[in-house]
Structures are given as C-alpha cells and as structure tokens.
Predict the structure.
Amino acid sequence: MPTREPTDDPSIPVGSPVTFSGESASLRDSRNGQTAQVPDSKGTRVSAPEAADRVVVFDTTLRDGEQSPGASMNLGQKLQVAKALRDLGVDVIEAGFAAASPGDFESIQSIARQIEGPTICSLSRCSKGDIEASWGALKDAKKGRIHVFLATSPIHRDFKLKMAKEEIIRRAVEGVKLAREKCDDVEFSTEDAARTELEFLAEVVERVIEAGATTLNIPDTVGYALPQTYAETLGYLKKHVRGIDGVIMSVHCHNDLGLAVANSLAGVAVGARQVECTINGIGERAGNASLEEIVMAIKTRQDVLHVRTGVKTERLYPTSRLVSQVTGLHVQRNKAIVGQNAFAHEAGIHQHGMLTHRETYEIMRPEEVGFSRSSLVLGKHSGRHALKERLVALGYNLADAQLDKVFGEFKVLCDKKKEIYDADIEALVIHGQILEAGAHTWELLALSTTSGTGTLPAASIALQKNDGTRHQQAAAGDGPVDAVFKAIERITGITGKLRDYQIQSVTVGEDAQGEVVLELEHPTGIYRGRALSTDIIEGSARAYLDVVNRIALKQPTNGAGAVPVRELGTV
Ligand SMILES: [Zn+2]
C-alpha cells in the first residue's frame, strides 16, 4: 500500500493513504525549518516545528450539522457555507448524504463542481444505490471521497439491522470494495463503535482496511463514551488491527454528555489523525464536537498535544457567525471560542490584570479567532469597498455580481436608515436572495388578505411553481396569517404543525426591518423558515414559503413517502 510522509500540503490526505504515527511529532522531521508560534504551559509563546503531526479537519456541518432540528439549508446557503469552510482551511467537507434526497444530491454535486481545495465527501450506506449516488454527485470534484458506514454494535445489529456479525463484515467489505472501484479515497465508519465489543470492532476494522478503506472512522454516534473509554477503544485498535498504521484513524463524537470535544482530543492523544466536527458544534440532539473548540485546543495546547491543523483560526469567528445566521441556530453567549462573552472581561479585578499583562486572564487573543471587538457602523457615505470588507469580516465572501446586488440594496437601505449595523448587512444577504437558493419550487406572485371586526379573516394567494404553472387559492382562518398559511397549504399540499412563530426587529429604531421566523414540524423533520419585510403578513407568507421550499427539496422524486434521514441511519 503506498504511503507518504505528512507534509504541509493542506490537501492531505487525499487519494492515497497517508501514514501518520501517533507519537509526538514535534520531535520529528523539521525539513523546511519553518516554525509556528505556540504558547507553552506558562502562556509564553514558544516555537514549535511546522512538521508537528497534521490532524485532518473533517467538517460535517453540511451533513451531520444539517441534521439538527430546524437547521436544513437550501442550495445557495450550503454553497456559501462550503466557501467559508474552504476559506477557513478545512481539509474535508462532508457535503451531504447523496442518496437521502434529490436536494442533497444536487447540493453535493454543486459543491463538488464549485469548491476547490478541500476534499468533498458524501455519506453512503453499504449499498450499491447509495455508493453510486455518492459517486454520481462527487465525480466532478477535483478531490472526492466516498464515506460508507455500517453499524457494528449489538443493539444496532439486533434491533435495527437484524444482521449477524458475519453478515455485517460481508456487507462492510462489499461496500468498501465497491466504493474503491469508483474512488481512491474511501472512508469507512463503524456506526455506534463506542458501544461495540472491542474484538468484533477490531475484526471489522481489519477487514475493511484489507478491502481498501483509506480512512477509518470510529464514531461515538450516541455520545456515550468517556475520554478514557474512548481512548482505550482507539488504543486497542492501534494495538490489535493489522494495517491500521497504513490508514488514518478518525474520531467522530457526539455531545450527549457534553464530552464530544474532550473525547475527540482523547482520540487524538492516542493517534487519531482526523477529527470530524461541525461549526458551532451543531448536530442532532446535543450536537457534534465543535470545530472551533478542537482547533483552538490543539493550537493553544500544542505543548501537550504535539499536533497541528491547517485551519486559519482568524476565520473561525466569521464562519461561526455565518453558520448561525444561515441555520437560525443562535450561539450561546458563553460558548467557548465564538460566544459573545468568550473574550469579554468585565469584572474590575480582571480588567486591572488585563491592562498590566494580557495573559493574566487571556489564554488566546481575540484576533487569533477573528473576533472583532467593535461592531463597525456603516452609513450612506460608505463605499463598495468598505461594505465588502465588512461582509468578509462577517463571513460572506461574495462573488462580484452578488456584491453588486448587496451594494445596491445597501444604498437603498441607507436612504431609509442612518446607521447600518452588522445585523442589517447580514439580513440583506440572508433575505435578499443574494444566496441563490437553487431551484425554488414555489414563488409568491400575489397576496391579499381581509380582516377586521365583524369579518371573517381570509386570504387569497397566487403562487408560481417551478414548472411555470400559476396556482391560486383562498382560505379563511383564525386570523389573516393563519388564513395565508392555509391557502399556501392548499396549493402546495405540504402541511405540518407550526411549532414556533416569531416576529422581531432586526436592529434598533423605528426604521428597523422586521424578520419573521417560523418553525414547522413535518413528517420528514423540523424546518425553519425566515423572511424579512416591512409588512408582517407578507413576511409571514414568505417565511412559510421558505419552509415549504426547504421541505420540497427533501422530497424524494420517486413518489415514495419522504423518509427522515434518521431512518437511513447515520454516523
Ligand atoms: Zn454524527
């Protein structure tokens, strides 16, 4: 099996397997003589060799993160996040689960075609259909990876898969072989590894390595592991599996016990050289390991961990902000690294210490993670360049045509509002259809409502479908907004239970724009929609349509009922 040495090339490991040893790498090869500044245990900056073992950062915000309730993203939003991840310097972007829905397939394909730099990856079950769907979406990528998975734990074998151990091994090997026929870069995940018998886990891992897997992921799918048990599992595999040193061992931890980051780092300490994580730690239930926390722990404590990543840490805060805006999942104020309070020092005693010697209370500098202390206010004298700089600082790297569009809308807004805040700019990008949404199934053509004392609230609405047809319906309701929702339901046939409905102003002042946010429960999952308008009824209609379009993206085209991704299984 061909191997190569760890290098500074951010594109590793792609195509061919890479040999990484788990030992302290700062003592190894320092061919290029470059050094990086890292703090030692006293907080003083010391030099560490660039050749410290490289940990591959595998971002799954667009796949596992998107499985967070209400976090589904449309195509344009996914592309925007993928660009931000590329600029952040992640090594692998897991762009989706190609077989899950045509919308997922389209997103992966667009990312594979447009995003250069990182390896683009698609998840697949161990089935011919899934693997072919993944490859179909990935084949135009400069660097593609097929990620196949199969559960190995007794509870999954007995109750979900109803397969004996031999059958699991046979399917896993077949899946990896099939994927390798299409692609040199194949990752295999033993779903629910943390609850699998060690001997059986080792057997599966050895067999899939023989079959050609180049990255071996050992997920704690349900967030059950403790740092020491997880390290023991990985250590056992390192010791007992033939061929494990010829592949990259990967960690993938869920945060059900709040231990996802701790477990991931425990895995790195025993030789894992790929970490799977998401921006802001978003993901199902309590989420995944948070990318920014792992990356900054590795950077800040390189004195202990002796590894490094290729992430440009000053892009962490902008990327976090972008993902939060796009998904509507807010970051808690006290969240490590990217929370609003992460670098705030308010107590007087701290301030005194900070003024005399910064490192008294600060183990990282805010600039290192791209945290901007001041929120710059723009106004009508601000030019295109100033707007562009602000957009980049907020995480939006727009193409020229998109920037022109935002600048046009910015100028219009400047006539209405004196001071333009970050939130206004973000609202322009998110709501201004700057991010191409891909094929919208439904578009609003016309809307009228009647309400008032003594009349029955009613709405009449006209929508256009993406096949060019015009559809019109009227409905009565408990109020004008309810009537609008009912009319949309009648036209689109998409119904669900409204779980949340909020109207809030985006910034301060009488001239503030209003944002409607709503959450709908549908058999395929929970969806959030948002719209910006000065008219709350029109805003509500647009937010509801936003949800309907997101649901439409997830509908299978084969006429079968929509299946929640959860039921397909996932790592
Ligand atoms: Zn997961």
